[in-house]
UniProtKB/TrEMBL annotation:
Location within or outside the cell: Endomembrane system
Positions of region (Disordered): 1-25
Protein name: DUF202 domain-containing protein
Top-level taxon in the UniProt lineage: Bacteria
One Gene Ontology CC term in the entry: endomembrane system
Keyword entries, A-Z: Membrane, Transmembrane, Transmembrane helix
DUF202 domain location: 20-80
UniProt keyword annotation of Lipid metabolism present: no
Membrane topology designation: Multi-pass membrane protein
The species this protein was found in: Nakamurella flavida
Pfam families linked: DUF202 (PF02656)
Length: 117
């Protein structure tokens, strides 16, 4: 049915390489960039809620998260900073930490909203 040759998992013949090995890291980097933009948007929303609630700690944490993520998004590995591409873990840890901190800050803002009613 496939011309007689063995087929691997993605439907290509087993003897041919049909993918570019450089594309996977690029897709991963783009996915983390989208995650960072989503966290940045969430930090903006939590910051607005903090301002409306007049809750300075919530607003400050949201602004700090937004700045940290914006800096991380804008920093890209370049030829003069090859150490960034060799060690992606610090960026990953920052992103995961920002997601967790944003969730906790959003939960605090939600609790403040309920308490102040």
């Amino acid at each position: 049915m496939n011309g007689g040759g063995p087929v691997d998992g993605d439907g290509a013949s087993a003897g041919r390489r049909t993918t570019d090995p450089g594309l996977q890291p690029q897709r991963t980097a783009l996915a983390w960039q989208r995650t960072g933009l989503s966290v940045l948007a969430g930090a903006l929303l939590v910051g607005v809620v903090g301002v409306r609630l007049r809750a300075l700690p919530v607003t400050l944490v949201a602004v700090a998260l937004g700045v940290a993520i914006a800096v991380q998004i804008l920093r890209r590995p370049t030829a003069d900073r090859p150490e960034q591409s060799a060690a992606p873990w610090p960026a990953l840890v920052l992103m995961v930490g920002a997601v967790v901190a944003l969730g906790l800050t959003g939960a605090a803002a939600g609790i403040l909203t309920l308490v102040r009613r």
